[in-house]
Amino acid sequence: MTLADPQAIAAFDAASPAAARKPAPTPQSRAARSRQTGLLALSWVAPVLLLLVWEALCRSGYVAPQILPAPSKVALTAWKLASTGSLFHDLGVSLLRAATGFAIGGLIGFSLGVLVGFSPLAEAAIDRSVQMIRAVPFLAALPLTIIWFGVGEGQKMFLVSLGVVFPIYINTVLGIRQVDPKLLELARVQGLSGWTTIRRIILPGALPSILTGVRYALAVAWLALVVAETVGAQAGLGFLAMDAREFLRTDVIVLTIVIYALIGAGSDSIARLLERRLLRWHPNFGGSGR
Amino acid sequence: MSLSVIPTKPAVLVRGLVRRYGERTVIDGLDLAIAHGEFVALLGESGCGKTTLLRALSGLDPIDGGSVKAPRRPAVVFQEHRLLPWDSLWRNVSLGLPADGARDRAAAALAEVGLGDRLDDWPRNLSGGQAQRVALARALVQQPELLLLDEPFAALDALTRLRMHALVKELIARHRPGVLLVTHDVDEAVALADRVLLMRDGAIAYERRLSSAASPQSVREELLAELGVAPPPRAPAFTSPSSHSVV
Known about the structure:
Chain A is mostly helical and about 290 residues long. Chain A is about 80% helix and about 0% strand. Chain A is built from twelve helices and no strands. Chain A is flat and about 75 Å long. In chain B, helix 3 packs across helix 4, helix 4 packs parallel to helix 5 (about 160-175) and helix 6 packs across helix 7 (about 215-225). The N and C termini of chain B lie far apart (about 40 Å). At the A-B interface, helix 9 and helix 10 of A face loops of B.
């Protein structure tokens, strides 16, 4: 498996937020809007067509159900598993693991980031070690985590936390460092105390970068969870998939893949919503501007 | 050091100020006094140390020699508005005020600069002149004894600049802080100030008190000449291109 370095991307993204965001919406004429609707419809043609071809290939017997089940079969399986409630049980277990791991890793990453962002002493003491650990693909630690924690909940949360720490850490440090020095001068002129300066100027200024880190951390969290769950678990989506493998239930396996994808997309939209809400003031995010 | 030569107790008293950047001495033994409620404009070529002097007065930069006696917390308006983009206008104006009644005070200050109906708006929705008016409100709401203006109108278009001059004149007349305006615009200095100083080689080289007796035009020409710029000819009909002075 090849992994893009999310931290590097996150750092780049935060360094040039304007380039990475779509521009604010501008008033459109009716013709332009109907053209937009047409293009939107067109963009859905290919995926739907692909799904239909897939269905047809499976129904006609060109593709054996053990290799790839028909989409309709996956949907039916989803319905069955959902009606017995077992799907929601496994989903809940997975979500809880991800959330706990994200919370722990996020808290550690943010705390270290704030410390290093403000204090040259902390940077000298901490930063090099963090950067060295970051250079290790964290999934390579998987065998070690199994020896340390077994295949229980602790191992999964640890792996998720480990993946989450770095994007949050790096983007928090970066955000604090990028706060406009002219605004810090203003803080001195206005006679703000150290704590007020942090609260009113440094943290709000670092927020766009921190939220970028959150978005990447969410993606990393899911990746870590899939890997941890697939290696060994007694419940959860990964367990569902590995259990299905024993019985060649490709429909269940494809279903878990689809659910993983949906959750990934869902968490990304939550992060975007958070950005739009918290960064209303930012010309590249909020929509209420001129 | 004897202060007895200064007749009234001034708002600002600078004696023998020295400020160096590395090897270069930017301010070299500068003396300056500003009376309470006096509007002083400081002219000079780019890089002559005008802004350095202002930063020393504001306490932003340390000094390398001499003494500076200024109010503990002068208000500063910079060339850029320096509004916090993530705070509404009233939150920007009340930055540094005690939380109690902050919104009311900010509202009053914004009303004074003609933006009383924009309390909850974002800075990004403001034009350059409006943003600079908010910065002015943020400075005046502190009720400063000393107001430092660092070329606050330099980035504005000519028409907006004239409107700002009128507004500043009116606000200063009402609040009566001592003012030091750093500018490179002779007309601006003549229009606003009680006294114009000219800075050269790190010290005050020339001083002109503006009285109602002197015509602004003659003061303007005098200052331009002192800056090394010949005033443009009054009747340019038959002058050859080479005789034009570049302003």
